[in-house]
Amino acid sequence: MLFRIYNTLMIRTLSSKAVDFAGREIRLNGWIKIRRDHGKLIFLDLRDRDGIVQIVVNPHISEEAYKVVQELRPEFAVEITGKVNKRPENAINKDLLSGTVEVEATAIKILSKAETLPFDMGEAKLNLELPTLLDNRSLTLRHKSIFEIFKVQEEVARAFRKAAEKLGCTEIFVPAISASATEGGAEVFKVKYYDYDAYLTQSPQLYKQIMIGVFERVYTISHAYRAEPSVTTRHLSESVQLDIEIGFIDTFEELLDAIELVGTSIVSDVSKNCAKILASFGIEKALIPTEIPRLTLKEAQEIIYKFSNGQRDCRAEQDLNATDEKLICEWAKKEKGSDFVTITHFPTKKRAFYSLPDPKNPELSLSYDLLFRGLEILSGSQRVNDYDQLLSIMKERKLNPKSFPMYLQAFKYGIPPEGGFSFGLERLTMKLLELQNIREASLFPRDTERVDERLSNLK
Amino acid sequence: MLFRIYNTLMIRTLSSKAVDFAGREIRLNGWIKIRRDHGKLIFLDLRDRDGIVQIVVNPHISEEAYKVVQELRPEFAVEITGKVNKRPENAINKDLLSGTVEVEATAIKILSKAETLPFDMGEAKLNLELPTLLDNRSLTLRHKSIFEIFKVQEEVARAFRKAAEKLGCTEIFVPAISASATEGGAEVFKVKYYDYDAYLTQSPQLYKQIMIGVFERVYTISHAYRAEPSVTTRHLSESVQLDIEIGFIDTFEELLDAIELVGTSIVSDVSKNCAKILASFGIEKALIPTEIPRLTLKEAQEIIYKFSNGQRDCRAEQDLNATDEKLICEWAKKEKGSDFVTITHFPTKKRAFYSLPDPKNPELSLSYDLLFRGLEILSGSQRVNDYDQLLSIMKERKLNPKSFPMYLQAFKYGIPPEGGFSFGLERLTMKLLELQNIREASLFPRDTERVDERLSNLK
Fold this sequence. Notes:
Oligomer: homodimer
CATH class of the largest domain in chain A: Alpha Beta
CATH architecture of the largest domain in chain A: 2-Layer Sandwich
């Protein structure tokens, strides 16, 4: 398809491409990041979606441009025409893609003005407290140290889709409004749905399982809602969840293969395609061995006990806590050269009702967590796929089968052995960049205190 | 990454690959679609994610398999081992990828049983009323004529992402919980959000515009919620919306280029990658000329008047109705050899507050709809990007600026000329396959009467 050209304007050049036009005139679009007055010469850092380019404004070259530049402040959106000049060797800026050139302005046009910024956006790091960062989200997202988080997030989603397609999954789109609380529990948001009460789904779990009967293998990116009343650095009220579900598995280990494939593919793609960003966040290259160590919870607990020289004894516990996750990952790194470790066989009663009890020992479930550098990042299980077993587990757990009509319908008609896993997009983004708070990994985080604005402002 | 092999089982073969194993033994997984008793021989149609393969069960080959097959009914999930035999020339089934072979069963294992089906799933079309189709959604989705709709839907999403990336857009993830009704109006769902009232967003509009200041060009796939109380064949309460927003545009026409690129790319990719499905739905190949005809609303109205020989006169109206959209598309097909037509310059007061009034005539807005075969499928506009103009329009429209704090914040800091567009995934899927009702194009449609179950069952 041919794009039509309507105007006689010079075509816009992106900052990263300026180097290709040395000696020629180009037109740039972007925002003023910094203006530096050096007596007669004025320098601008212009930001566009590809990076930064330096502009020099010289009244002897263009009196007009020099006049306009007096008015410019940070975040003004502008169009700048100028000649690309090579910089002398000693003035090359290696941090910029355009660092070997600068653009000598012949004309500057203001496209949209900006108010005076409430804080300095010109530094390499934004030294603001989180509430201030979020109160001014529309502005602070423009800072490199912030928006790069979301370039990594975009890559996580892209890598996930690539891995899911490699596994033969079909992409599905599932609803977030549900007639009942998806997995039981009280932490649900209630919606006034016409004359009825409905709820926001806590996960796409039940829908992706239904779809096993249709496509065998599916993936979905959806929203998960948790009315978690406590404030922590690891929970959001609304988050993006990425899910995979795989049918006709022959062995439990096939599911471990799949979760490890997806987890390591994402980390590996991000390492490769966001290498510069990871470096600027001080993140080391991940260790991904050919075989990820796999441990049952019990084995992991024994190792933690020995590895900590008896300092930490979690052998009687039902799960790993944050300290245990760190310790077992330290062990995996030291002993197996791996930043990943897979833990299996968590107690059945600690997992969701659809987790399959191990036929050899029903107290333990065929469940698994994938840990990365001290944090569980993906989690899942083989599922109960027999209709009668599902019904009897629901009864044991005091779940009303009538609340799951569409889900149970699927299992009446031959759902084969299957399983899956999921992860939170913000949680994984946070971990990949070692952010302190999950809110930093959400463009517009929702929690008990904030929906864009602080909720207390609304009362 | 190497997959580990744990079992000595023969690796599973997909139905479409059976032809590669003529003369050899393979293992298949799938669901019984049809069982046909031919006296001594029993034939099965086995469905897996890739298609159908015919199984023949002969007691002289395997008495065991012949015994198991007696028990099989439609939708039983099974594992079948058998030898791939070439079919005689006159028995080749050209409708199947596996049509040149059949598999002679040596062993059949039931993986999961199915209850007796409430209706026949063996026919090429499912002759069920829509309510029955939806009441039994977990089952009916397994019918080829139904699940293929969602293979097309998957391709629409894939094509959209491809086109958006071609335009240089960054993928963003935006929230669906909002502190106020996104675009004003009463048709919003209210959520009990901790101690506050919140709403489900009607579109990601405001967030994608904010992100112009960050990434210049963005795309997002999100959910849109409309508490539309009326029952129509074209509305869902929850739908999937695909959005693009593009900053630093030089001309209005750049936006028309972009919407046409995205619209035609999707139709073209679906035509190419889902050709068989389109054919089975009786859909003709789309006419996509190099230049899509572009008309202002006024021009379109004049053409409709003339083209209908004065039978239809909408020249005094503010919009095109369903009949007008059909007529102008008939004209475009006949006169311009195009299944697409772009209509621009709708009255400002008929479009959302963020649509930019045409500076040459503020009564009309710089808005556009892309029509395809008689239906508007994508819609958008250039936006008001000046903070003061935005405030004054909000006041005129009696919108309270305090309801849009994060949105207005973005415009305080230099948002350049920009615009965008969006479309509903279900609506476009419906149109591409000429379905009668939008509910057919949603896996689990939500409307005034249904959230999986009929709501009346819940009272």
